[in-house]
Design a protein that fits this description.
The chain is mostly helical. The protein has one domain. It is 70% helix and 0% strand. It is found in: Membrane. It comes from Nonomuraea diastatica.
């Protein structure tokens, strides 16, 4: 994949999550759905939790566009935690698939990006253990 295509992918995903962060802070209904202050309460969370989720999404979006493997890894893993919560919330609340397909799709994408940007100094965790390392 070319460098420009990868950069475009990161910017596209970052803009999606930045828009998601803005809608979490929006006081009323958005063009996409009802107000998140109402949605979070309906899901069983306090209304203020939308600010925490929005902040995490916004920071992670910024981290995705910084062209450094560590920052992109941190952004992708942060979004994986947020999206795991979103997917779990949709499952627990029996939300229709039509309204909740984006969270699992983005979770898979962020998992792929996290693995693609795994920091080099942590790669030895995935390799087979060397016999000498086991003896120490």
């Amino acid at each position: 994949m070319s460098k420009h295509l990868k950069t475009g992918l990161y910017w596209f995903l970052a803009l999606q999550f930045a828009l998601g962060a803005v809608t979490k802070y929006w006081p009323g209904d958005t063009i996409f759905s009802t107000a998140y202050s109402v949605k979070f309460v309906d899901w069983g969370y306090p209304s203020w939790m939308r600010f925490v989720v929005g902040a995490l999404e916004g920071v992670a979006a910024v981290l995705l566009v910084i062209p450094d493997r560590r920052t992109r890894f941190l952004g992708a893993t942060t979004l994986m935690f947020v999206l795991t919560g979103a997917v779990t919330t949709h499952i627990v609340n029996h939300d229709p698939v039509v309204g909740s397909w984006a969270a699992p799709t983005h979770l898979v994408i962020m998992g792929i990006l996290a693995l693609a940007n795994w920091p080099a100094d942590c790669r030895h965790l995935l390799s087979a253990a060397e016999p000498d390392a086991l003896r120490r």
